[in-house]
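Lab manual, section 2.4: Encoding a predicted structure.

Procedure: take the sequence of the chain (152 residues), apply the prediction step described in section 2.3, and record the output as C-alpha cells. A sample record is shown.
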Amino acid sequence: CGSESAVSHTAVDLACILAICLENVDAASSLCSSRLAFDRKNGEKERLIQSLVAVGKVKAMQHKPSEANAFCQDAMAMMGDGPVSTETTEEWALLMVNIFGAYFDLGVYAQVEALASKTKAILEAAGLTECYVYAECLNHLALCYDYNRLYA
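Recorded output:
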C-alpha cells in the first residue's frame, strides 16, 4: 500500500510539473488542485507547501493575481523565514524560486526582487552558489533589473 501511494504521488507530481511546463493551464489547474485537496487531508507539511506553491504558480498563469498571492503567501507562512537546516536549504530555495516565479508571471517585480535577493543571500550563506537554484535567483534579479531600467 505504501509503495502504491508513493507511485501515485510521483505520477501526480510529474503530471503537474509537465502541465505547468507545457503551459497547459487547464490540466495544470485540475491536477494541482486535486493534489492540494489530497495534501490538505493528508496533513504532510512538506507536500502541502509544495501543493500551495504549485497552485499559486497555476493561478499566476491564469492571471488571477489575488488567488496566486493567497496561495503563495500561505506557502511562505508555512515555510518560515528560512530553511530549518543546511540539508533543506536547497529544497527551501527551490520552493522560493517557484514562488517568485509566480510573482514574475504576474508582473510584481518588486516582490520578485525582494524574494530573489533573500533567497540568494541564504544560498550564499550556506555556500550553495554553484547550484541551479542560485542561478535562477541571479536570472530573476537580472530580469527585474532590466525591467526596471527599461520600463520604470
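Check your result against the sample. The first helix runs from residue 2 to 21.
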